[in-house]
Amino acid sequence: MQTLKENKLTFLEKIKYKKKKKLNRSKLGNFALFLFLLVFGAFSAYPLIMTTSNAFKPLDELFLFPPSLIPKNVTFDNFRDLSSLIASSWIPFSRYFFNTIIITVVGTAGHVLIASMAAYPLAKYKFPGRNFLFGLVVYSLMFAPQVTAIPNYIIISSLGLVDTYAAIILPAIAASLGLYLMKQFMEQIPMELIESAKIDGASEYRIFFQIVMPLVKPAWLTLIILLFQRLWTTDGGAFIFSEELKPLSYALRQIAQGSIERSGTIAAVSFIMMIVPITFFIISQSRIVETFSHSGMK
């Protein structure tokens, strides 16, 4: 047991050393890098700022050209109108919210668990077909969702899962990105640590859940963030038709559809759908950077 603790501490110390290691740059180089990041950061943040600003603009300001970055007359009428439309919906708003919670929580948890358990043997053990299987995972990352949309629908339809939560949850659980990230990150764990645990009598499940998973915490936190953002904004697509099973994103977009008078309501909907995943991302953004740096993704 003492050997296991020493190996685990050594691995953690290496990670801390990598975090502390910095590049040597001159003051002029640091200033130039700061300006570069500032310009591109402002460029990237502009759509988010505009979405937030539009949510609090009255209707007449939404159609001004050029558009103003800061609302002149801040109003909450857009959110009041949205609340009135929600109250008049024949499906309770809580039902849409419940559907989104079920899809997001089950899909995210299932993806993290399955991807981690599949990545563990690929990363730490050698068996026939190992490289071929991982090659298929890498190649699958090359295909855009639009390319696989029809095959996915055929598979889901043949399984009789159309118009169920599983039609959204199962493809999310089977996503290959999580397997790739977890495998790349688990390769950083020294095999001596796992062998020490086996000598101490730990089973494979205990090694996986009590040693490997805590060490790759940044990786699975990143998966939670990425999949949460994806599932939170899903509208059911071509898989869910029953109004009672539709998620929150679909309900808000349908409510906002209508005449030009609902432009303010649409802005409020965009802000609501954006604020939750962005808040979640800001809290855990350091974990994403750390995971991509260890996995080799650019």
Automatic annotation (TrEMBL):
GO terms for cellular component: plasma membrane. The chain crosses the membrane at residues 28-49, 96-120, 132-156, 162-182, 207-228, 265-283. It comes from the Bacteria. GO terms for biological process: transmembrane transport. It is found in: Cell membrane. It holds the Pfam family BPD_transp_1. It is a multi-pass membrane protein. Keywords: Cell membrane, Membrane, Transmembrane, Transmembrane helix, Transport. Residues 97-284 form the ABC transmembrane type-1 domain. Belongs to the binding-protein-dependent transport system permease family. This is Inner membrane ABC transporter permease protein ycjP. It comes from Haploplasma axanthum (Acholeplasma axanthum). The gene is ycjP_5.
